[in-house]
Amino acid sequence: MFAAMQSKSPSEGALQLVAVISAKGITRAEAAKLINVDRSCLYRWLSGERMPQIEFASRIEKVFSIPSRLWAVERKEAA
Contact, 75 vs 10, CB < 8 A? Predict the structure, then answer.
């Protein structure tokens, strides 16, 4: 369920997923159920500890309309 690539900060996909989860008024546990993953996996993706594999990034795209390519884009830090 986890890609080998590890990130130090959340990806752009993670940041957008957090925003969508909040906007929909659902919990992270509910979001994990919607994409059929354990909530601990989702928490690791959202924290930047891990990145979802293509299969899971595609599920996120289908359920939450967040392009799977954004999981590979690191967040831009404010200067």
Answer: yes
